[in-house]
Design brief:
Blueprint: H1 9-20, H2 27-33, H3 38-47, H4 63-90, H5 94-104, H6 108-113, H7 116-130, H8 137-144, H9 149-177, H10 185-199, H11 205-214, E1 254-264, E2 267-276, E3 282-288, H12 293-306, E4 314-317, H13 321-324, H14 326-335, E5 338-341, H15 346-349, H16 351-363, E6 369-370, H17 373-389, H18 401-406, H19 408-443
Parallel strand pairs: 1-4, 1-6, 4-5
Antiparallel strand pairs: 1-2, 2-3
Helix pairs in contact: 2-3, 4-8, 7-8, 9-10, 12-14
Amino acid sequence: MRKIIQYSSAFKRKILEEIKNGKWESASEAARAYGMHKQVVYTWLDKYGYGHLKGRMYKVVTPQERDLVAELKAENKKLRDMLLDEIVAHRVDEAAMLVACRELGTTPEELKKKRWHEIACRARSRHHELNPRARGITKAVCKVLGRTRQAFNKGRRARCRKAVDEAFVVSLVDGVRATHPQMGARKLLVLLRPEFERAGLSVGRDRLFEILRGSNRLVEPRRSRTPRTTKFDASLPVSRNWVAGLVVTGPWQALVADITYIRTHAGFIYLTLITDKFTREIVGWHLSDSLKAEGCLRALEMAAGKAPEGCVVIVHSDRGCQFAGREFREALGRLGWISSMTEERHCYENSVAERVNGILKQEYFLDATFASLAEAEGAIGRAVRAYNEQRPHASVGMMTPRAARQDPWSALPHVRKAEKEAEMVRARRMEKARRARAAGREAA
């Protein structure tokens, strides 16, 4: 059986001091002298911070030779400093330029034209670390890069102002995202542009993206797995899809409805949302602990309370039994409203409602797990208010849904454009699905 030898810390340090003082030409020689493997000594060198002594050493016997080695080391350092001064003050050769370009990920032309200030700051800081008493280094570095010291100082002030401006922009973004945690850069720009103008800042889309990327604040897409909430009952009547091909020209012409799930510690609860197809405003919602029709009726009641008197509205939904049932249809009949349902590709034919579900879950974290129904209801209320009153929507020309309802003429061109693009996407998906079914029948 192999014997394990335990060495004391004092013994280990004694050997390391001998290697350091030059008694042995190398760590291997010290290991042989004490009858142990060289790897053991290498391990001690790493452990006690003498890793630089692993290479071959020159044996120093007398104090005079030790003093000579120290003198040679000091002279060597002085020569290196002089060489560095010479390189920085007179030339940066091609090899050094290529190394700098590789480290910064740029080309020599771009380095001298656009990023010269960055490399000048690096060279200046490096030189001051090696020779703190040196003077004139800024002028020397600028001369090498073909710039003046005045340009360097001006650029440094501009960079300081830029850093302050970026910090101000980040603070504004954090303030908005306290209410809208997942809002993207384009919508942030719409909300923050008045603040930028008051502060005298010129921040465009690309600049805002750059600031968010540099501060690690770009939004990552979030996707979640969803349980099925649509329960189809073949015995219930199905309405025609009245919104297919319909071009809405104002609010309260067509509403879209859907049910989505919310997680709690006690299980799933269900949120019914009714949204105006023109303005994208959530006009009715209700949270229930079951998939019965009561939640849909409560949401419809809220929407009816906000609708103008005497208007005739199309209410579009999927074929779920909650919307196809007698109670919901009778409630629509009492209001004089029209029922509309999906016919084939249900999620695509009710894409506006599905999109609203995704926004609330992905941007306002309603896909989280809540402690109770009451906590979830409070979070949903805050999310709906923020969505309706503060969040710009691309489909209505970056207006908020509430503003689009108050000024529908400004939103109308953008709504028509969005509807046309959505219809083209739906047509492509429907055609792709039709071809897939045809190919399956032929294969069978």
